[in-house]
DUF305 domain-containing protein (Candidatus Tagabacteria bacterium RIFCSPLOWO2_01_FULL_42_9), 209 residues
Amino acid sequence: MKKEPIFYCIIGVLAGSLLTLLFTTNIVNSNNYGMMQMMGIRQGIGISSMANNLDRHFIEQMIPHHEGAIEMAKLAQERSKRPEILTLADTIIKSQSQEITQMQAWYKNWYGVEVLVDSSVGMGMGRGMMQGGMMGGTTADIESLRNSTNFDEAFLQEMIPHHQMAVMMARMLLSGTNRPEMKQLGQDIITAQEKEIDQMRSWLKEWSL
């Protein structure tokens, strides 16, 4: 089951949603400020406030995205027999659970409230910045994965694009945040998940899945 065509379609959707993000979160950085000036956009708030909005929005989206990956990883612990996938699942659960806890703490400290997650988000279904981009981790994906006859292939084909979306989201964060904690989180996500993507792709080839 190849998902590349679907993934590239989602890339297009995500690219479109970036324009929405520029308006709804008022993000300005050295890369998009000129473009927004040409469009006649004038921002009435400071860059620090804009970056703050990005941080808040990112946390609200990345937590359910991580939760989707954790749900898939837990299913892999139940279904897979390959030690490589079991080890990957353990790593995903541990690392992303820690990141969720850290993001929740930052959010409470910075904004004075618990993280609010839209009920439509569910397990990985984002809106706004990531609408249509959180491939994998939805209730339907979990059930499809649970019932898959070739679990390992289905798991890798779901988790690879799911990781790719996380990497894209992290790169967007790095382009606009001013907080060193968020910069480090974004870089950690990129480093860890790009490595896991490469590993999963090599398994697909090595195992002829």
